[in-house]
Amino acid sequence: MQMQTFSYDNKIVKYFLYATLFWAVMAFFFGVLVATLLFFPTLPEYIFGSDDGTIGGNIQGLINSQGKLGFGRLRMIHTTFAVFAFVGNSFFTGAYYSMQRLLKTRMYSDVLSWIVFWGWQLFIVLSFVTFILGYNTSKEYAEHEWPIDILIALVWVLFGAQMFLTIAKRRVRHLYVAIWFYIGTWAAITMLHVFNNLEIPVTFSLTAPKSYSLYSGVQDALVQWWYGHNAVAFFLTTPILGLMYYFVPKAANRPVFSYKLSIIHFWSLIFIYIWAGPHHLLYTALPGWAQALGTGFSIMLIAPSWGGMLNGLLTLRGAWDKVRENPILKFFVVALTCYGMATFEGPMLATKTLNKIGHFTDWVPAHVHVGTLGWNGFIAFGMIYYLAPKLFNTKLASVKMANAHFWIGTFGILFWVIPMYVAGWTQGLMWKQFAADGTLEYGNFLQTVTILKQWLYPLRAFGGTLYLIGAILMIINVWRTVKSGHFVANEEAEAPALAPKASTRAQGEGVHSWIERTPLVMTIGAVLTLAVGGLVEIVPTIVVKSNVPTIASIKPYTPLELEGRDLYIREGCNACHTQMVRPFRDEVKRYGEYSKAGEFVYDHPFLWGSKRTGPDLHREGGKNPDAWHYKHMWNPRSTSDGSIMPRYPWLIDNKLDRELTRDKMKSMVALGVPYQQEDFDSMQVSMNKQALAIEQTIFKDASDLKELYAKKEAEAKQQGKEFVPLRDREITALIAYLQRLGTDIKAEQVETASN
User: Fold this and answer.
1) Which of 63, 126, 86, 103 is nearest to 183 (CA)?
2) Confidence of residue 1 (pLDDT cuts 50, 70, 90)
3) In terms of pLDDT, which residue wins out, 325 or 36?
4) Which terminus in the chain has less CB density within 10 A, N or C?
5) pTM here?
6) Per-residue pLDDT reduced to its tens digit, 687-698
7) Distance (Å, rounded) from C-alpha 115 to C-alpha 14?
8) Are 406 and 270 in contact (CB under 8 A)?
9) Rounded to an integer, what distance in angstroms lies between the CA atom of residue 668 and that of residue 675?
């Protein structure tokens, strides 16, 4: 048998490992920052300045910050850093290392490897810059604007090309289970990313991108959570399972427990997972049949998920004595345990019984972080501790430090998730509590907020800080390991050449054995398996109009309201406020008539949200006067004592930019919003009239503001400076949007027509 000599590319693995370490600290730091803002909302004022004498500085500093430390923007940065930067780079690290060794070949192209590396880092940096500046689409885990969406797609396609071309020149006939999961991951993410991010650019400017989702309302919600849930499934689960199937057996020096269980695990998981997205939309305006499908398949997910967990844990049979001393195995065991916990809890939360209590509460972030901190994080940490000595031909610098990291990280998880479980149960039960006289026991939303921010939110931030400290210890340990070793960029290896064999199934050959040695068949099979769920759930919702009954009274947003809606998106308000009143007695009592599918037909994108850090806003229109909204944005604690909402003084200072309003309306027309020519002809007049009415109402209700603006105008004239009237400022557009919410429909006057 002819032996061939070749080399593994360790340099690309090293760089991805370094990137993983860097983005881990960034993700955890921003996580702690975001958590801190929930009990210390005045932190930006201490940094930039305030008009509060006890804080000091000057409010102009906070205005000039333009929301760069706003909670909504920072949350997007944290999730992108955690999901795509930390977990994404850890996946690439493990995939580039394991694929070469499983396929007995170097990656197909070093050039492609570096394009993928730098392209992925560029995407993350551009996401940070655009989110800080307020350019986002509001769609959870997919907030990136259209130029970055294109960049992600290009990099991901190039990674796929690299993977499949490497598989084509392999020296091993059958693909190992880890490779199956890499293929399934690539196919699913490609499909999810493309279809969820179909959008119409308002402007093709690369420096100020703006787009609107191709879908609206109910349809957009379904597509988004088909993507959002499956971003968890196919970016935070299946690729990490691939890493688990490679690194756990390697670290334990044991074979995978069950080959047959691996087959069942892979195919059942990718088939069932793709259907589960609608469980994020239970009791909403989504059609009931789609909700039922989401719940049913979510419950079925327990079987394949636990099959994978057990396959990983039982791989350690006969090696449990090593777990006591080996920190790598400790990380893997806790990771698999957290995977099992999260994949049991997820289906339970998908049942209507628990969903009506847990949804929109802090229970959901607790559930998510069991997976991200425990499953994703600990698999990544264990893999890094395994790889660093291998890459640098040395021993881990400090096993004690790695063990310390394990315990600090474990306590970090506990201090993060346990307070949030308590917070979620507190919210869910308090919101629903009625007094004996039929009124809400806790009618003021702030009654729950003030409880949570005293102890539970600080404890979460403490847990995140512990987790961050553990990651810093890991970096020190890896740095010391690197310094003590010798890196070999091109690791020599040899393997026999792969003899040619027909791609058709041989007589007596098992079906799956044949699939494993024919990557094309496996890929096509994975794509078809993945596509079924999406086709059945999404296509009817988009095509069959009776799924979204129209309501005659629903009208498009006025130009000023459209601009206000975009300001709402820019500031990330949907991170804290939902716009979906569910048909529960307590929600109808608290917020008003429950939400109807036909109310959202002109919403590109939808803004239903996923968590209520603040109250629901779908029936906000007319509840509070314009002057209240003005003062609430200037300082929420002046109108709502105990509020944890950040201040938005720049909205009051900034002049509203109307340059793109006409283009925004044209884009909406292209999406089916029925603006007429007269709407374009009267656009400026309409905006001026509506803005003037808001200004007059504010001045009528708040004489202090009328005097303030009169004084500012006089000072501007005296100094020869331009004065921007209140009616021309951003705050007026935002108030116009907020006052419109829910006003097109009245509970006693609902006219529906199914087409």
Assistant:
1) 103
2) low
3) 36
4) N
5) 0.95
6) 999 999 999 999
7) 15
8) no
9) 8
